[in-house]
Amino acid sequence: METNKDLAQKAQMSAEKMEALTEQMNDIAIKTERETVSMRIVTIVTLFFLPGTFVSVSNVGSYLFSATLMSDGVDSYEHQCVPIRQRHEIGRV
Questions:
Q1: Which helix (H) or strand (E) holds 77?
Q2: Is pLDDT at 68 greater than 80 in this prediction?
Q3: 1 to each of 4, 12, 32, how far by Cα in Å?
Q4: CA 61/CA 42 separation, integer angstroms
Q5: Tens of pLDDT along 46-58?
Q6: How far, in Å, CA of 24 to CA of 28, rounded?
Q7: Taking the domains of the chain in order of start, what are their residue ranges?
Q8: Phi and psi for 75 in degrees, rounded to 5?
Q9: Residue 57 three-state SS
Q10: How crowded is residue 82: how many other Cβ atoms within 10 Å of its Cβ?
Q11: How far apart are CA 37 and CA 43, in angstroms?
């Protein structure tokens, strides 16, 4: 009889612990759902702006970043059209 009471108490304690864990997992699931919605919004914004950023940097970036290689101070359109490697070699001569 005493063994049955001990087993019943252990089963009750185990059930209470499982209930607490289930509540914690439910809270985690709700927070995960909120974060998922936030990540979808960030993904949509990124998909909207990233292609334009890539195109603008690929078209204009070579002129902006190659200006630091010019040491002679020449700022003509013809000089800007020279590829970066040739411009660097021209600056050495």
A1: helix 77-81
A2: no
A3: 5, 17, 46
A4: 25
A5: 888 888 877 776 6
A6: 6
A7: 2-92
A8: -130, 55
A9: helix
A10: 15
A11: 10
What is the number of residues in the chain? Answer: 93
**Predicted local confidence at residue 77, as pLDDT:** 46
* Calpha distance 5→13 (Å, rounded): 12
Could you please report the per-residue DSSP string of the chain? Answer: -HHHHHHHHHHHHHHHHHHHHHHHHHHHHHHHHHHHHHHHHHHHHHHHHHHHHHHHHHHHHHHHHHGGG--S----HHHHHS-HHHHHHHHH-
What phi, psi does 83 have (nearest 5°)? -55, 155
Q: Which two tokens stand for residue 19?
A: 């209930």
Query: Look-up: residue for tokens 């864990």?
Result: 21
pLDDT at 76: 47
Region for residue 73 given its phi and psi (left: phi exceeds 0; alpha: psi -120 to 50; beta: otherwise): left
Give dist(CA 92, CA 76) in Å, integer: 18
